[in-house]
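Sample 1 of the test manifest.
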Amino acid sequence: MARVFIPPALRSLTAGLHEVDADGDTVGEIVDQLDELFPGARSRLCDADGLKPGLIVMVGNSASSLGLLQRVTDDEEVHFLPSIGGGA
Amino acid sequence: MSTIEKPAYKVIGTRPVRHDGADKVTGVAKYGADVSLTGLIQAAMLRSPHAHALIKSIDTSAAETLPGVRAVVTSADMPEQGDRFVDLGEGGTIMSHLSSNVLAREKVLYKGHAVAAVAADSIHIAREAVQLIKVQYEPLPPVLDVREAMRDEAPVLNDDVRTQMLGAADPDEAEDQPTNVAKKFLFEKGDVEQGFAEAHVVVEREFTTATVHQGYIEPHNATAQWHADGKVTIWTSTQGAFTVRQQTAELLMIPASDVKVIPMEIGGGFGGKIAVYLQPVATLLSRKSGRPVKLIMDRAAVFEATGPTPGTYIRAKIGVTKDGKITAGEAYLAYEAGAYPGSPVSCGCMCIFGCYDIPHARVEGYDVCVNKPRTSAYRAPGSTNAAFAAETIVDEICCQLNIDAAEFRLKNAAQEGTRRVDGPVYSRIGMVETVAAIQASDHYQSPLEGSHRGRGIASGFWFNVGLKSAVTAMVNADGTVSLVEGSTDIGGTRTSLAMQLAETLGINAEQVKPTVADTDGIGWNDVTGGSRVTFATGIAVVEAAKDIQRQLLQRAATLWNCDRESVRYEDGKIAGPDQNVITFAEMAGKMLQTGGAIVGQGVCSDVAQSGAFGTHCVDVEVDPETGKVQILRYTIAQDAGTAIHPSYVEGQMQGGVVQGIGWALNEEYWYDDQGEMRNSTFLDYRIPTCYDVPMIETIIVEVPDPNHPYGVRGVGEVPICPPPAAIANAIYQAIGVRMQHLPMSPPHVMAEILRLSSAGNGRA
């Protein structure tokens, strides 16, 4: 199970939960499970093309450009964060 | 100083002459303004005289009929973007905003906003024609301050902006109401109320910082040639040829593969030469005129119309126990985005407590549009402003508790395993080591004597990024290697990359011939930014070198008629059975007889960096009669991971400090109440010169980054973060005045001296 950190802006969907354990081999599968557990999560994180622009996923310590395709192993942390930059 | 015993490198850590040095010091190197083509014509821009106005009409007829004029363009020549949202490498970009920033559509949003452009046989005709363009404006009231812009009654810049919070409307905001507050960010860790309840001392302060510019010496430039087959070539000074290609293609809705961008040498960027301003306009003018077109900004346009870094308002609070352990932190950051959304406030939020292990914290941030140029990145974007707030409060806490400022930092420093406020956990980092290095330095250990003199220290954090790079390395028969890369060389990266290739192949740095290619000459490379090139492109270079090694081993096996597994590569030589040994150069000489060209390829994609830290110490003297601050001595300790070329690491450290000193003491945009910048020249916008700063003493700390084969960390950005706070802390020690506004220029320092004196608290 991956350990998914829920951004404060999504905690209204998770009844205040800061972290949840989620099954999935990829970030996409984890988002699917989040959406099952907390309806609306997918639409906050993704659009039709994948993760919303301006958002990155960090699996462990690594930001991944693979987005929903990024593989996740058991016990890894998953964070959804603003992309690093400025003046975009 | 190194924290671990390093491998015995032969090339890494030496200081070879830079590969591009001779051309640069002899004036041979070609910059954007040097481009000369057959049939080249010149262009000029018409810019808005208003900070905020509706464009009622544009009449270009008189300009078009002026003899010598070849083309006139306005936003009517740019495709409509609709609601397209495109990721251009530094987060998502609303294409209609990028397009309107290049050539204004319905509104102008800052003084200097581009409205139209003319290409003509000479720059003089183009400038004359620009004056013949008639624009009817309906002026609107401007809003120039971040807090003013957040008020309900503030003039709204963009009708399409609603406050977004992680991809949805902010639930605290009125539905479907246009606003200047484009984004809200929130980060939480632990229970902040509990954390402050555990504190014995809590310090909360407010800080403001002025808008400042990156201050690169070379103005923006672009030359475009539209070819008869519909393709376009662009020569330009940029931090990223590929993002220029992508932005131009997206804006003009042409295939990216039809656009070739040739990056010229760059006269400074610091984050400000990533967004396009002139390239699409020069392209349109070339398409319309059938001639190559050159377009160059003057200094006023650079200041008034290209990305400064934001003015900010920050309120921060830190709680500690009586023995100096941080229990909680809280911060509110509001950053000016300029005309369109996109300030680095999210980075400021994620950096503000980045130096410390804080169990409980809450940080919120606001991205706010104001009638100033659209901001762009500037060296560790968002972090310097945030460090000014956090590190000033830390110093005040140290004074209240009578704890040594270095000891306090050591006690609370983030280290491997510390969870950041925004969530992720640090891998191996060097915050502790930079503080220890300053603490042990001759500077920190030497007494500071004299009246009105003070010493301050401060630390800073920047993430550093990896992103994507690709390189090609071609072996030459004379025993050299041509290294083709796509990362703009701003700080000596041709050489730092060549050195990594040389180290891996066991040859000399001088045997590598690095070249920065155009967008048709190499695979995708992200921008030179985020302190990433020596790290990420370096990883690609090491991969390319290993690819060459593999091919050389196969060639040697062929030469000696033995199994591939029986040959090995070691220290620039290939050894095989029967005591056969051949050097790299000898094997290269046999390349064409053993199978033809040897071409190594390397790609790096999104390898994470572990973060950069620095701690600075500064001595100042303050003139109590004028408020002028003189820097007496400055020492920087920074974790470079492994310093590939120590001279360039030191150069980045010194350059970052000097820019930070300018930001701290002098630099600011002066706007009048109508939104006109009144100091848009280098005479009045005062960046530091050699008369303002002493030699910056450098201490390179080496805590290798485990994510890079040689332990490299990016070094370009974090040195700009601590200077304002370190100087503010030194000013306090000198005259007892706590500065909470940047710049700490003589009028601002004097005002604080007089304010304290009138309150009976001054000691200046």
